[in-house]
Design brief:
The chain is built from eleven helices and ten strands. With 389 residues, it is α+β, with helices and mostly antiparallel strands. The strands form three sheets. Strands 1-4-5-8 form a four-stranded mixed β-sheet. Strands 2-3-7-6 form a four-stranded antiparallel β-sheet, with no helix packed on it. Strands 9-10 form a two-stranded antiparallel sheet.
């Protein structure tokens, strides 16, 4: 199944190249990892060697210098081929913070090695147990002490921290009672986890319904160099906020990829599975849910590209990015249910991969932001209705 947007030669080449990498990592590979709760080290290494994780790093630092639309195609194609980009997608959406606001020294020090795969920037420390989506209420503090900052606090749902060399960290550098506006007093740091684990930083895995290597991270008087600060002190929330649209567009692309996998899998099974002397796909109860999901996926796909193209042009795209994430996550979940229903009992068997992908795609109606908060954003900021939270 192809989208009407598959018209770019560049995108076609990306799709073909990513599919070739993914072909080396079949369902058995992912089922084994899922059973052992293991990180897809070989898969991430293969993507790095092929240059796909350096897609958005400028060519001067060893990357491809691609735009967000192209990066979204990479992630979509990974999921469309039955693989999962959650092990490495953060590198794309955290990259913008470093590219837009990092110093020349930080870029020169880290970007070439991130581009060639010898360093991984996969950890994004923002969410906390007490604040959740209310980022402005975070409590983790970074207090200046000479040439260092001393960090104390806790982050949660920090995926890939055990498998990342670097972390983009958001911490409070000014207490809430001293700021004029809630958005002030937060700062971004690019920290080297290798030097901190067991020296002020403790990482603890969290077991979840899908194998996403998520953790909670504890900071106990962790000393980080003052040179870790990204941009200006106290303006970190704005830096992080500017990357959230990119994150939502990229997650939408992954959802589109999942949805297309479910549609292809469900339609193929419905054509081949014969019950009562005919293919089950001839029954409207099987055929129509898959067809309806297909229509919704195509609509969400167009919104995804609209949002990505606005982002690439430097236009405001908050509404489009949020709508893309909302529509794509819901379309993927609809396609997942249609696929599972078509497979019947076999859909729950591990060997068909449906149940694994089913668990994985459900996450995105909740993360990186709950769809109810997307609706609140649209209702209040686009439609002008009263603030509900």
């Amino acid at each position: 199944m192809t989208s009407s947007f598959d018209i770019s030669a560049e995108h076609a080449a990306i799709r073909e190249g990513v599919a070739q990498v993914c072909a080396e990592f079949d369902g058995a590979y992912w089922r084994d990892l899922d059973a052992r709760r293991a990180y897809p080290e070989a898969f991430v290494t293969a993507l790095s060697k092929a240059g796909y994780l350096a897609a958005m790093i400028p060519e001067e630092y060893g990357g491809s210098g691609l735009n967000l639309s192209a990066a979204a195609v990479i992630l979509e194609e990974i999921h469309r081929n039955g693989c999962n980009a959650a092990a490495c997608h953060a590198q794309m959406y955290t990259m913008g913070t470093v590219l837009r606001h990092g110093s020349a020294e930080q870029k020169q020090k880290y970007l070439p090695r991130i581009a060639d795969g010898s360093l991984r920037l996969q950890a994004f420390g923002v969410t906390e147990p007490t604040s959740g989506t209310d980022t402005l209420a975070l409590r983790t503090q970074a207090i200046r002490d000479g040439d260092f900052y001393v960090v104390n606090g806790q982050k949660i749902w920090t995926s890939r921290a055990e498998h990342s060399d670097l972390m983009v960290l958001l911490a409070r550098t000014m207490t809430r009672d001293k700021v004029r506006r809630r958005t002030e007093g937060l700062s971004v740091f690019l920290i080297d986890l290798r030097a901190l684990v067991s020296h002020g930083v403790t990482i603890k895995p969290i077991r979840t319904m899908m194998n996403h290597s998520t953790t909670e991270v504890f900071f106990d008087n962790a000393r980080i160099p003052a040179s870790s600060l990204v941009g200006e002190e106290g303006t970190g929330f704005r830096y992080i906020l500017s990357g959230m649209n990119a994150e939502r567009i990229l997650i939408a692309a992954e959802c589109i990829g999942d949805a297309k996998w479910f549609l292809s899998k469900g339609a193929a099974y419905a054509k081949d599975r014969v019950v009562f002397g005919r293919p089950i796909g001839a029954n409207q109860g099987v055929q129509f849910p898959i067809a309806r999901a297909y229509a919704h996926v195509e609509a969400a796909d167009k919104m995804r590209f609209d949002a990505a193209e606005k982002f690439d042009r430097g236009e405001k795209c908050g509404a489009e990015a949020n709508m893309a994430k909302l529509l794509a996550s819901e379309a993927a979940w609809e396609a997942a249910n249609a696929c599972l229903d078509a497979h019947g009992g076999y859909g729950f068997a591990r060997e068909y991969d449906v149940e694994r992908k089913f668990r994985e795609t459900r996450l995105y109606m909740t993360a990186p932001i709950n769809n109810n908060l997307v609706l609140a954003f649209l209702g209040q900021n686009v439609l002008g209705m009263p603030k509900s939270y």
